[in-house]
Amino acid sequence: MADEIDSPNDLPAAAGGLAENYPEIWDAYADLGKACSGAGEIDGETKRLVKLALAVGSQSEGAVHSHVRRGLEEDIDPETLRHVALLAIPTVGFPKGMAALTWIDDLAE
Q1: pTM for the model
Q2: Distance, CA of 108 to CA of 74 (rounded, Å)
Q3: H-helix segments, 22-108
Q4: Which of 20, 45, 56, 99 is deepest in the core (most CB within 10 A)?
Q5: Greater pLDDT, 47 or 20
């Protein structure tokens, strides 16, 4: 998956600013993402769902939005993306799972 890290033009302001001001750091970060993505045998949709789950668990609204947006671009069903938030409820708690569900719905509705 070559698109594991957004291009600088597609990033939120803070990350885009880092990419513009420190391109060597951004390039190293993007290379790390590509290397991690290619290091195993997990298929593309499963990788996206795992990355979404990690974003949900870390309560990163920006990362949730990023992975939902990419998932939708990759034709992952919105209900499948929502299921990730529901699966998180027993592990991270009801309020955090519900917050993630609202973040997913920001883009999936």
Answers
A1: 0.85
A2: 13
A3: 23-37, 44-57, 61-73, 78-92, 94-108
A4: 56
A5: 47
